[in-house]
Amino acid sequence: xxxxxxxxxxxxxxxxxxxxxxxxxxxxxxxxxxxxxxxxxxxxxxxxxxxxxxxxxxxxxxxxxxxxxxxxxxxxxxx
Length: 79
Hints:
- By secondary structure, the protein is mostly helical.
- The chain is built from four helices and no strands.
């Protein structure tokens, strides 16, 4: 089944939903997916990669870091 057929099938099933909660969940998923859909990972030059590595190392030496556990807690608060 191609993407267009899947979209039509999804819409048909969506139109049958009577639950406000289910619709809210689907809206939340759609918003989250469309928010990141336009962001594309751009390729970078070796020079840009090295510049970013140097900057990251400098930030690390200067204590400009977020611990992994702190980051996970912050991510949970995004929704």
